[in-house]
Design goal:
- The complex is a heterodimer.
- Chain A is of the alpha/beta class.
- In chain A, about 55% of the residues lie in helices and about 10% in strands.
- Chain A folds into two domains: about 15-140, 3-Layer(aba) Sandwich (Rossmann fold), CATH 3.40.50; about 225-420, no CATH class.
- In chain A, strands 2-1-3-4 form a four-stranded parallel beta sheet, sandwiched between helices. Chain A has a four-stranded parallel beta sheet with strand order 6-5-7-8, sandwiched between helices.
- In chain B, α1 (about 45-55) packs antiparallel against α12 (about 275-285), α6 packs across α8 and α8 crosses α10.
- Chain B is of the alpha/beta class.
- The chains are: A alpha/beta, B alpha/beta.
Chain lengths: ~425, ~1000
């Protein structure tokens, strides 16, 4: 092995008391809850919600400009915060989420450390959080219990995201759904933080959340449904995708975004596949199987509840999603978002959402294959699907992206109108047949 | 014209407005009759232009009620602000074609900055170019400027072409890098013009059709296709269309505006002339800018005065040529876009200088200048030495018998040293290049040149100035006093185009844009080329030069970004020529062409194809009056000197090995292996396994340009790397060979050499087979085998391969597979051992014969002649023994790297760099494919490993580009710097 000695600054136990830990934002609701939960362990965590063009600018100064956009943004956001003077850099630590694997994204953490060193902050510890457990930090150990707490944050977040998206396009009072979601985020975060994490309570909360959203006054009207898939950061982060969800909602569309749990399940499922396909790591295979069953069960409980309730559309069970790439590409495609990206496109089509935005950082390697590379076969097998690929980048202009989105939306609207007209004609015909 | 099959136009007056990136179009339709149409450039004054155009048709609109709709990329903001319905332009085109030409199968529409393709038959599909694709109207405009022609002249010239040069079609900047050297080397303008159009055509097909064939009745729309006859011809020919199937309608330029009118015809919002004008006027007032603004370049007049005062001090003394007598030295800098010439006295004073755009013909310009200069010298002044530098160096040397040719970097350093003996950092921004070098202990210590991708800096400002209706001087002056410069980002110029578009939409002034562009050029240089974090890193005595720095806005932006003053010699634009003249001072007697000979000077350039080897380089042969000849376009010296290179070249050895695998007859059918991506290294493994299993194994040949073209129509993602895109051509070749099977497996993991943290393949190498399967329709003619396999474990490979193959052919036995796999690994091992042995032998040869060694490092597939473009041979010509990364990696230990060392191929890079770091006679040059995401990570590491030991780091970005001009400068600079360092 090349790097035997510890080549990073560890986060020690002493630091728990003294250090402020900065966390980058990807999904605001999810992350707020998870942070609230982790604070109960004494960590002084702060979610970075800064935005603006100087973030990318700072990123470009510290990271190789051809590196992918998410790295430029996340590192830019950290460096921007560190050099703002707001923090005592001797009492500061950073958290970076990390996926392992053959995609260059597994190098974000190294790039962040390089940037820190370059700027003279080499002593700032960076904690990597990853399923693979790439590094050890004595002051930041994630045990099963913590994983469980964080998992609830993800589950709540996914539910809230689903409900907000299904409500806000139709709400009478603009902003009502988001406001309600924000209230819930606050409440659930505090609750998780108070240490009360019992699954029974969580399920009771699910029902309360669903009920509260069902009470928002809405005017149902036919709206274009647009699904968003893609590289995980630009898919979710408003900073990464120039507020894509907001743009689509303002255009009157209903946005469908598959949840974060799907991505986690995908990562876990790959441990199983790694053994099955490549004969690797039997231990991780067993661990993966157990973890998968557990996490997937939790997701399915939520689906069951939504289905039983009937007022909102439930997400697709992951076992099913995992079968959908079949006929397009193999499940061995496991770098980056891999086969999940393709599967999610099919999942959207199956659930009746035939307009899809496929987001990726400019020059994203796995997306050449799983995103853009699969569009032709997807269109062939589903001729009425309307997909647009949007590249995000430090310098690509919003006007360019919006123009392409507008084209997708124009077609979506025309398709919807044709569908409604056909339906109307069908309905007119029916009484005749009956009589 | 009359549109009579659109009921919604009946009895209605409808106005369609299309505001594109460069032009605005209006169409007025009354009861189905098109009663008015107008096409006009808007020079970025979007709102004002629209108001003007509406005012012009006041008589037609007055006292009537009508409907309006706006379309076009620059129309969006306007429509929103004015409350006018907006329709996306591709959608609008679709609308109008469905009405006018319902039997159309595809539409190709080229606009100022967008290219669009719409398929109607077999499922409507609408596509727009990605963000990295500039082969459009703005690109053609830029190219015309480059040729010093109007667009009309260029078009007319293109019709006279006799041959086509391959020109990169990825984006404008890339194409420019190909075109510029062609011009400098004297290629015929007609041929270049047609080749430019061909590049646009290729771009459209590769970037937009993405696997769908363009056939049937095709409509060609948009400005460029309306105006450029030559472009039409290229499309017609390339797509094999006839006059019946390729239609270029009269209304081509107005299709979007007509579509907008159609779209708006049933709108519920109606206007009168007054309400429309007032809506537009109000919209102009309620601009909400979204693009970011920056600090002005000068906060006060006093600041400006100080700036002007400070820079006026770095003058060069001049002596009138009429009053001088004695020795003199001539320096010529034949740059990519400009030609510079100086004559200096014995005490380095300027006697004569000349600076001009090279107008696509540097030879003619130098000739004219010499015709003026030589009589001025008369008998009083004796030119004792002459030197030429720059892109056109060789051509100029041959044409005028110039005494020596110098690589640019050395010329610039010589000049800078003259102004600031302690200079430790030089930044030169020219028309096409950014060059910078650090100087340590009086020798060039590191050289950084911009990659093809970020070039176009200086000439970009010029082209932009022209497109906005200004000359570059006025444009720059405007920028100096901008109130709020627009932040345009710091990437490639195509991206900047879009940012400019956005800022125009937000109502930015010409001043703000000019200043913004200056800042972008500076940021590009600082953060993309130099990759600096603070001015301290650069040095204490910074000299800036190059024509672009004559632009005070750029100079100021640079000082602001740096936070420190720099020195700009007043002859910033002439530094290359001045340095060449200084360098020529060691000559006593010059061979320079005489005035008499100049009178009969003839320059003829002809094109031909070299028959020296299978490479068939396209040559340009320049012949001059005295019988001197200069050949360019050659990848080797065979044609020129008649000699064969004899220095060891591992790239060539590896090529010979991989192309010598024999095909043995096999009972189980013909199985093809595409020689691309990972196959370059694993060929021995797979070839042996399948031969042993009883297949007749066929390997595709090393690539040529034709290989790429053969497969380009099925490439879905045009920003993938060239080595991946060329794979499509190899697949086509195997299909043509009639293979029963084609095998290219999916390999997440590569061979484990136990030298890294993990041993992945990059995502593209790992899974490209999936993409091929999804996008190559004709793979149904064969069985494409792309199982997920592991090659890091013999047992595992036997198991998985058996499972897969026995499904295919139940007669295959596990025992058989095991045996084949064992033999395969043995073949692979011996292959690698042979490469290592050849590497060691080459190193020994170099050391015995006192030759320099170059590790030309990249990936195994970089040895492909079409991917590596003969850089290895060029290095041979320069006197280097060439080895590859995999032939020397075993001779060094894995160095410490700061990143996750997890890819097999890349781990070798680090070790090869370590080897170079440890050996004084060995240099490493890293080949990086455009779009390689992984190399964004490795390059910084490799650089660090080398620089830790005081070695030069040289990176060459490669793509479709075939011209070696820029590469040559880079390698020669390296050589020059090495020599200088050793001389000390």
């Amino acid at each position: 092995m090349a790097n035997e000695e510890l080549n990073y600054v560890p986060f020690t136990e002493d630091m728990i008391k003294t250090h402020t830990i900065l966390v980058p934002t990807m999904l605001p609701m999810h992350f707020k809850m998870i942070l609230a939960y982790l604070r109960t362990y004494g960590y002084n965590l702060e979610l970075l919600e800064t935005n603006g063009p100087n973030i990318a600018e700072t990123g470009l100064k510290y990271v190789h400009n051809d590196t992918c956009y998410p790295a430029i943004l996340v590192i830019g956001q950290f460096m921007d915060a560190i050099s703002s003077g707001k923090y005592d850099t001797d009492k500061l630590a950073l958290v970076q989420f990390q996926t392992g694997g053959g995609c260059r994204a597994s190098n974000y953490i190294s790039l962040l450390r390089k940037a820190l060193k370059k700027a003279g902050y080499g002593h700032v510890p960076v904690i990597s959080i990853s399923l693979q457990g790439v590094e050890k930090h004595p002051g930041f150990k994630l045990d099963i219990k913590k994983f469980r707490g964080m998992m609830y944050g993800v589950l709540y977040g996914d539910l809230l995201m689903t409900l907000v998206n299904q409500t806000r396009t139709y709400e009478v009072e603009k902003g009502a759904a988001q406001k309600l979601a924000d209230e819930w985020t606050e409440k659930l975060g505090t609750e998780l933080g108070a240490g009360k994490v019992s699954y029974k309570d969580v399920k009771a909360n699910y029902q309360r959340i669903i009920d509260s959203f069902a009470q928002i006054p809405v005017v149902k009207r036919p709206a274009v449904k647009v699904g968003v898939v893609g590289e995980i950061f630009v898919k979710y982060s408003p900073l990464g995708n120039n507020n894509l969800e907001q743009f689509l909602t303002d255009e009157g569309a209903e946005v469908v975004v598959p949840g974060l749990m799907d991505f986690i399940l995908y990562c876990v499922y790959n441990f199983i596949l790694d053994y099955k396909l490549y004969g690797r790591n039997f231990k991780m295979y067993l661990a993966g199987k157990i973890a998968f069953k557990y996490l997937n069960g939790k997701k399915n409980d939520q689906i069951k509840m939504l289905k039983a309730d009937g007022r909102f559309e439930a997400p697709t069970p992951f076992e099913h999603t995992a079968t959908l790439a079949d006929g397009y590409l193999g499940l061995g495609t496991k770098m980056g978002e891999g086969w999940l990206l393709t599967s999610e496109m099919i999942e959207l089509i199956e659930s009746g959402c035939r307009n899809i935005v496929c987001t990726q950082p400019f020059g994203c390697l796995p997306n050449h294959i799983c995103g853009k590379g699969m569009m032709k076969p997807i269109k062939e097998k589903n001729p009425d699907v309307n997909i647009v690929a949007i590249d995000y980048d430090a310098s690509s202009s919003k006007v360019n992206q919006e123009n392409r989105l507008k084209l997708m939306l124009s077609n979506a609207r025309a398709n919807l109108e044709a569908e409604l007209a056909a339906k109307e004609a069908e309905e007119k015909k029916e009484p005749l047949l009956v009589s | 014209m009359i549109i009579n099959n659109a009921p919604k136009l009946k009895n209605r007056l409808t106005l369609g407005i299309d505001i594109g990136s460069t032009t605005a179009k209006v169409v007025l339709i009354d009861d189905g009759n098109v009663i008015y149409e107008k096409y006009s450039r808007h020079f970025s004054q979007v709102r004002q232009k629209t108001i003007e155009m509406v005012q012009e048709i006041e008589p037609l609109l007055r006292s009537r009620t009508f409907r309006v709709s706006i379309s076009g990329s620059a129309g969006l903001g306007l429509a929103d602000a004015a409350g006018i319905p907006f329709v996306q332009e591709v959608y609008a085109t679709g609308e109008v074609i469905r009405v006018l030409e319902p039997d159309t199968s595809a539409v190709i529409e080229l606009g100022g900055e967008d290219a669009k393709v719409i398929f109607f038959k077999g499922g409507t599909d609408e596509r727009m170019n990605g963000t990295c694709a500039g082969g459009t109207g703005a690109f053609i405009d830029q190219m015309a400027v480059l040729l010093d022609m109007t667009v009309e002249e260029m078009d007319a010239a293109s019709l006279q072409h006799t041959r086509l040069y391959p020109i990169a079609s990825r984006c404008g900047v890339f194409a420019k890098t190909d075109i510029q050297p062609l011009l400098n080397q004297g290629a015929n303008k007609a041929d270049v013009a047609a080749s430019i159009y061909q590049a646009v055509v290729n771009q459209t097909i590769a970037g937009l059709a993405q696997g769908r064939k363009i056939e049937g009745k095709v409509m060609f729309l948009g400005g460029p296709l309306y105006y450029c006859q030559g472009l039409r011809d290229r499309f017609r020919e390339t797509l094999k269309l006839t006059d019946e199937t390729a239609l270029f309608p009269e209304y081509g330029r107005f299709a979007v505006a007509m579509g907008a009118a159609l779209y708006g015809a049933d709108s519920s919002i109606t206007f009168t002339y007054e309400t429309l004008i007032s809506a537009l006027v109000i919209s102009a007032a309620t601009v909400v800018p979204t693009s970011e603004r920056m600090q002005p370049l000068f906060r006060s007049e006093a600041e400006y005065a100080e700036f002007v005062e400070r820079h006026s001090k770095t003058l060069v003394e001049t002596t009138p040529i009429e009053s001088y007598s004695g020795k003199a030295y001539l320096g010529i800098d034949s740059g990519s876009t400009t030609t510079k010439l100086v004559l200096i006295s014995e005490d380095c004073k300027l006697l004569y200088s000349y600076y001009s755009s090279n107008k696509g013909n540097p030879v003619q310009i130098i000739r004219e200048q010499l015709e003026i200069l030589l009589p001025l010298c008369g008998d009083r002044i004796k030119i004792c030495g002459s030197a030429a530098t720059g892109y056109g160096e060789e051509l100029i040397c041959h044409a005028f018998n110039v005494d020596e040719g110098l690589v640019e970097t050395i010329a610039h350093y010589t000049a800078a040293k003259h102004f600031q003996p302690n200079v430790d950092f030089i930044l030169d921004i020219g028309g096409q290049d950014i060059k910078c070098f650090k100087i340590r202990n009086g020798a060039i210590d590191s050289i950084m040149l911009n990659e093809a991708c970020s070039s176009g800096c200086g000439s970009f400002i010029e082209t932009f100035a022209k497109s906005m209706g200004y000359d570059v001087q006025t444009f720059a002056e405007k920028g100096l006093h901008a109130q709020a410069p627009v932040n345009l980002g710091s990437r490639c110029t195509v991206f900047m185009n879009s940012s400019v578009k956005q800022s125009q939409k937000d109502g930015a002034t010409v001043e703000d844009i000019s200043a913004g562009l200056s800042v972008s050029v500076v940021k590009n240089a600082l953060y993309k080329v130099i990759r600096a974090n603070s001015p301290k890193e650069l040095g204490e005595h910074i000299v800036v030069q190059g024509g672009t720095f004559l632009n005070d806005a750029v100079l100021r932006a640079f000082e602001m970004e740096l936070g420190a003053p720099v020195i700009r010699p007043a002859i910033a634009g002439l530094m290359g020529a001045y340095g060449a003249a200084l360098h020529a001072m060691h000559f006593e007697e010059s061979k320079l062409i005489s005035y008499e000979e100049l009178q009969n000077f003839v320059h003829k350039s002809t094109a031909s194809t070299c028959q020296g080897c299978t490479n068939h380089c396209r040559l340009t042969i320049n012949t001059f009056s005295s019988g001197r000849r200069f050949i360019s376009g050659n990848q080797c010296q065979k044609m020129v000197t008649g000699k064969k290179e004899d220095l060891p070249n591992l790239h060539q050895i590896k090529r010979d090995i991989v192309s010598s695998y024999p095909t043995a007859p096999g009972k189980r059918g013909k199985l093809g292996l595409p020689l691309a991506l990972g196959m370059f290294e694993l060929l021995p493994l797979w070839h042996t396994i399948f031969t042993q299993l009883g297949y007749e194994v066929v390997v595709s040949k090393l690539s040529t340009r034709q290989t790429y073209e053969k497969g380009q129509f099925s490439i879905p993602s045009d920003t993938a790397c060239y080595p991946a895109k060329i794979m499509h051509g190899h697949m086509e070749e195997l299909l043509e060979a009639g293979c029963d099977y084609i095998f290219y497996p999916c390999l997440s993991y590569n061979i484990d050499e136990k030298q890294s943290d993990n041993h992945y393949n990059c995502p593209v190498v790992a899974y490209y087979a999936e993409l091929l399967n999804g996008n190559m329709e004709n793979l149904d003619q064969t069985r494409f085998l792309y199982p997920y396999l592991s090659v890091d474990n013999e047992k595992e490979l036997s198991r998985t391969l058996f499972r897969y193959m026995s499904n295919l052919d139940p007669t295959i036995k596990l025992r058989e597979v095991r045996k084949a796999v064992k033999a395969g690994f043995a073949a692979y091992e011996s292959h690698m051992a042979r490469i290592r042995a050849e590497g060691e032998q080459a190193l020994a040869y170099a050391r015995e014969n006192g030759k320099r060694i170059m590790i030309l490092a990249g990936r195994p597939y970089h040895i492909d002649p079409e991917i590596g473009h003969g850089i290895d041979k060029l290095a041979n010509q320069l006197g280097f023994v060439v080895v590859s990364e995999d032939s020397v990696a075993h001779l060094a230990k894995s160095p410490k790297v700061k990143v996750l060392n997890q890819w097999t191929y890349h781990a070798r890079l680090y070790r090869a760099a370590q080897y170079a770091a440890e050996h004084a006679d060995t240099e490493l040059v890293q080949l990086v494919s455009f779009g390689c995401g992984v190399d964004a990570i490795t390059t910084d590491e490799v650089r660090e490993i080398l620089e830790r030991s005081g070695k030069f780091y040289t990176q060459i970005k490669i793509d479709e580009i075939t011209n070696l001009g820029a590469v040559k400068i880079r390698l020669r600079s390296l050589l020059g710097a090495l020599e200088e360092k050793e001389g000390k």
